[in-house]
Design a protein that fits this description.
34% of the residues lie in helices and 18% in strands. The chain has 19 helices and 16 strands. The model is unreliable at 42-50, 67-71 and 93-199 (pLDDT under 50).
């Protein structure tokens, strides 16, 4: 603040006579301004950002704040030309000429000077706006204002439309708004107001596989359903991110089975690894259709004890292309893999391969006991370049073979945000490459990061064909779930090429519909063909499949065949007391021949009411309903989010990590985004 004594000193200082240079500058400024007034460039209004007197007041205020009273001669030299400049405009200027209407001509095209044209081109191409210049010192500001007035010319965009003449005595607020708002660019300043140039929205290049919802099928015409198991969770975490950002996910990004299998369930597991998993089947009423039932199939994998876990040989294949330079991509990726390294045993091995314009080895195979070396290599990762993913995959497999562990876990862990835009970029070519490499005993898992460039379709393709899993990591909490809490199931497979085939009894079931697994469908004959690839199950994994079935005699969506009914005269139907027969084929992780597990589904598996079903069964059904609701399927069209939340809340059960509580919040978010429509 300026005290009263300083103000008194300034008030009593005699005004010095102006020097010749100051007089010359003031005269030049006045003449230039006069010429502009008398010979305007047909402007569309003033290019100044505020009233002309505001310049003098602002400059004087800056002078006072800078306390330049110790230099009275300098203050007089600065103040006098500005005072003359402002006075001239007050006498001649248009801003205060309210009494007469002023015609403003259409703006002619004015050729942009090269520096400004370059600036406009840079701005239009989406480049970052020019950083604001540092404020001038008070003495410099006065000189700049006086000099600028001599050659300040308004530069108009050639495409700018003519502005209509303002009406007399226009509203004062409107006038102030026009004067104070950022207006047109000046030749001297060469800066475009950010609000004047619309910034292009970032291009969304996310790629997902489009698919149709499983149809209702007649048990008499098509009694057999065959599919590969799916333990991926990417769809749920991607949908969660969208919902938390206030966006309803597109139907094709919602794979209902991945929503269901995101959550851990306490299905009964096998007693020994000789039988790698156990099947639990239950039948219950459908909460969204009083005429149908749900056949719920829960599979639990054998949970390998830490002392029984084999050695792991892991290769981190990390995308460091330029698009990874975002907080939710490479920085999050580094933090995620640090968590995994701290989870490994001392005898495990880690290698790191990066790819951008080309592939490179950051870390040769290193024992996990040398954690500092591994963590240091992770911390040095930096983004830059295009995405040569195919070359990276080849190098990663080479390192995996170099440190191959017999009877151990050999896995490439690919972390990326999107496309492989250098090398083999076609999904089918990548599929063949991965299929060829998996024969060596090295599996591949994929972890997606970020948005806007995510190639979910590619992730699914190479994970399915690499005998691995696909996960989407949007937060450090999700990284902790996938790479720490679920580390055993993520890293240690107990069975591969796991297929499920269900045959429905047309004497007990009229129709059926598999909820989800559309992208994992197999042909009926593929079930017994050991050459056909399918999904893997990791240690302790739980897998859930749910069928909606229409019991015989209930209202159907498909008409019965005229000649298809079984009768006593044509032999009837065997095992008529069964709803269905569930068959599961699998191979040992290092085996080539499949084994078969079968489970008949009878009325003994049925519960009297939906509420009588187990907690995990009811919660998984709530998630299935939520996934179908997000896909806008007909089956749940009249089943509200409030009912889904009610079922999930009642079946929340033990929730040590808060996953189910978070699900309830997502249901509420989706309800709000859909306007609480039923």
């Amino acid at each position: 603040m300026v005290d009263d004594n300083e103000l008194d000193m300034l008030r009593n200082i005699p005004t010095p006579a102006p020097g010749p240079e100051a007089k010359a500058r003031a005269l030049a400024a006045a003449m230039a301004a006069y010429d502009l007034e008398k010979n305007p460039a047909a402007t569309q209004g003033t290019a100044n950002a505020g009233r002309l007197t505001e310049r003098a007041r602002k400059l004087w205020r800056d002078i006072m704040q800078k306390k330049l009273i110790a230099a009275p001669a300098l203050a007089g030299l600065v103040a006098l030309p500005i005072a003359g400049y402002a006075t001239f405009y007050l006498m001649e200027g248009s801003p205060f000429n309210f009494g007469a209407e002023q015609e403003i001509a259409d703006a002619p095209s004015v050729r942009l000077k090269e520096p400004l044209a370059a600036e406009l081109k840079k701005t239009d191409s989406g480049a970052a706006p020019t950083a604001p210049a540092k404020p001038l010192a008070a003495s410099q500001a006065g000189k700049a204002e006086a000099e600028a007035s001599a050659d300040e010319a308004v530069v108009m965009n050639e495409a700018a439309p003519a502005m209509p003449a303002p009406a007399p005595l226009a509203d004062a607020a409107a006038q102030m708004s026009r004067m104070s708002a950022p207006t047109l660019t000046t030749e001297r300043h060469g800066v475009i107001a950010p609000s004047d140039v619309p910034m292009p929205l970032p291009e969304n290049r996310d790629r997902v596989e489009d698919f149709k919802t499983n149809p209702v099928r007649s048990a008499l015409e098509d009694p057999v359903s065959t599919f590969s198991i799916d333990v991926d969770t990417a769809s749920y975490s991607f949908a969660r991110r969208l919902l938390k950002e206030g966006v309803l996910p597109h139907a094709d990004t919602v794979r209902v089975e991945e929503m269901i299998n995101y959550f851990p369930y306490d299905w009964k597991g096998p007693e020994a690894i000789t039988t790698p998993f156990n099947t639990t089947v239950s039948v219950m009423p459908t909460p969204w259709n009083e005429h149908t039932k749900l056949m719920h199939v829960g599979i639990k994998g054998y949970d390998v004890k830490p002392t029984e876990q084999p050695k792991a040989n892991l290769v981190f294949l990390i995308d460091v292309s330029g698009s990874m330079d975002e907080p939710d991509k490479l920085p999050l990726l580094r933090s995620a893999f640090r968590l995994l390294v701290n989870k490994l045993n001392a005898d495990d091995t880690v290698s790191i391969v990066t790819y951008a314009g080309n592939a490179g080895t950051v870390l040769e195979p290193t024992k996990a006991s040398d954690r500092e070396k591994i963590l240091s290599a992770i911390d040095t990762l930096a983004p830059g370049g295009s995405t040569a993913g195919e070359a990276g995959i080849r190098e990663a497999y080479r390192l995996a073979q170099k440190s191959f562990v017999k009877d151990g876990i050999n896995r490439v862990m690919l972390a990326t945000d999107g496309d492989f835009n250098v090398g083999q970029t076609d999904d089918d070519e990548l599929k063949r490459l991965i299929e060829d490499k998996r024969k060596s005993g090295v599996f591949l898992s994929v972890f997606g990061f970020g948005r806007g460039n995510l190639n979910d379709q590619m992730m699914q393709t190479i994970a399915q064909n690499g005998n691995g899993t696909a996960a989407y990591i949007d937060t450090l909490a999700e990284a902790e779930k996938v790479l720490v809490q679920d580390a055993s199931s993520t890293l240690f497979p107990i069975a591969k090429d796991v297929k499920i085939q269900v045959e429905f009894n047309p004497a007990a079931v009229a129709e059926y519909r598999l909820i989800g697994y559309e992208t994992r469908a197999l042909n009926r004959e593929d079930f017994n063909n050991d050459r056909v690839d399918a999904g893997e199950i990791g240690s302790g994994h739980s897998v859930t499949a749910i069928y909606e079935i229409t019991p015989k005699g209930a209202p159907q969506q498909i008409d019965n065949l005229r000649y298809g009914e079984a009768t006593t005269s044509n032999g009837g139907v065997a095992n008529a007391d069964e709803y269905a027969f569930v068959k599961i084929r699998y191979k040992a992780p290092d085996g080539d021949t499949s084994r078969l597990i079968t489970t008949p589904v009878t009325r003994a598996n049925e519960v009297a009411s939906f509420d009588a079903a187990g907690t995990d069964q009811r919660f998984s059904v709530a998630v299935a309903a939520f996934g179908q609701k997000l896909r806008d399927e007909d089956a749940t069209a009249r089943f509200g989010f409030d009912r889904i939340a009610e079922i999930a809340s009642a079946a929340r059960g033990a929730d040590p990590y808060g996953y189910r509580a978070e699900f309830l919040s997502l249901v509420r978010l989706a309800s709000s985004l859909q306007g609480n429509k039923p």
